[in-house]
Design a protein that fits this description.
The protein has about 140 residues and is an alpha/beta fold. The protein is built from three helices and eight strands; from the N terminus they run E-H-E-E-E-H-E-H-E-E-E. The strands form two sheets. A four-stranded mixed β-sheet has the order 1-4-3-2, covered by helices on one side. Strands 5-8-7-6 form a four-stranded mixed β-sheet, with helices on one face. The model has no long low-confidence stretch (mean pLDDT about 95).
């Protein structure tokens, strides 16, 4: 079987701020931007990995979601407990410094975790946890 990760989804609350974070802080390219106003679906990804993307989407846009579910999603996003992703880099300290220089919200500076991973963490403008792990 030949299965790869093509796209994963993170919610956004401010499409322009989310584009700025993923483009300017993480160096991703904007591949597609569909919709208007707050109802935009934006695809971003690493320039050297055209087959892997993140879709930044309006939260709870699905018509099958109830008003109570929308409120729950909004509350979770406000606390930063709704969306998250793990990224990887060979230069964690350099990456941390570049992302931090953009005034991104730092959650954790580079740290050696007890389970064998060295990583750091930021929040994007929508509150999503962006963890970046060091890989060889």
């Amino acid at each position: 079987m030949d299965i790869t990760i093509h796209t994963t989804v993170l919610p956004h609350t401010d499409p322009d701020a989310s584009v700025a974070f993923f483009r300017d802080a993480l160096g991703f390219e904007v591949r597609q931007d569909v919709g208007q106003g707050q109802m935009r679906w934006i695809t971003v990804g690493p320039p050297d990995q055209p087959g892997t993307s993140i879709l930044l989407a309006p939260p709870a846009a699905d018509p099958g979601i109830t008003d109570d579910e929308r409120r729950t999603i909004a509350e979770m996003m406000a606390k930063g407990t709704y969306g998250w992703i793990l990224l990887a880099t060979k230069d964690l300290n350099g990456t941390f410094d570049r992302v931090q220089a953009t005034d991104a919200e730092v959650v954790q500076e580079p740290t050696d975790q007890p389970y064998g991973v060295r990583d750091c963490a930021f929040r994007d403008p929508a509150g999503n946890m962006i963890r970046i792990q060091e890989v060889s």
